[in-house]
Specification:
Layout (H helix, E strand, L loop, with lengths): L1 E3 L5 H11 L1 H11 L1 H7 L3 H15 L4 E6 L2 E11 L4 E9 L8 H15 L4 E4 L8 H9 L16
Parallel strand pairs: 4-5
Antiparallel strand pairs: 1-2, 2-3, 3-4
Helix pairs in contact: 1-4, 2-3
């Protein structure tokens, strides 16, 4: 069941975010090596939850959760750039331990419908090109996101 986020959901969504970002952190750690990884992500285990909470505070009332048997199993934060008519899908994840299929697609459909209802003309989501984000890329493509461009970040040891 998709519903609006409530303050009582905070601990659950932060925990889901941190669990869901574990494979992304592992991919970054393998790619960057331990020294650079620790410099970029000194609090890797909690960074997703911290960033999610920051986005939720910046865009109050624009987070949904999916609950099953009274337990939050997924979340999606979003906002609208009204001047550009672009809806933005922010931090989102399904609890890796949930075991249910299709939850992400249900949330994206809900958010995309909300964007249309509010007059947005496009929707945007940002994700990485690394292996840790592969599942997210496939999910966004299944949800109909079909215009993309790549980006590369370079690092050099000094």
């Amino acid at each position: 069941m998709i519903r609006a986020y409530e303050e009582k959901d905070l601990d659950a969504v932060i925990a889901i975010a941190n669990r869901a970002w574990a494979p992304i952190n592992a991919a970054y750690r393998a790619l960057y090596g331990e020294e650079l990884f620790q410099r970029i992500f000194p609090n890797a285990e909690t960074r997703a939850g911290v960033n999610l909470q920051r986005d939720m505070e910046a865009h109050p009332g624009q987070t949904i959760v999916c609950a099953s048997s009274g337990r939050v199993i997924a979340f999606c934060n979003y906002w609208m750039e009204e001047d550009k008519k672009v809806g933005v899908v922010g931090y989102n994840a399904v609890d890796p331990e949930c075991g249910l299929k299709g939850i992400g697609q249900e949330m994206y459909a809900w958010v995309l419908s909300e964007f249309r209802r509010k007059g947005m003309l496009y929707a945007r989501v940002l994700t990485g090109l690394d292996e840790g984000h592969a599942r997210a890329r496939r999910a966004y493509e299944r949800a109909g996101f079909n215009i993309s461009h790549g980006s590369v970040t370079y690092y050099k040891k000094l």
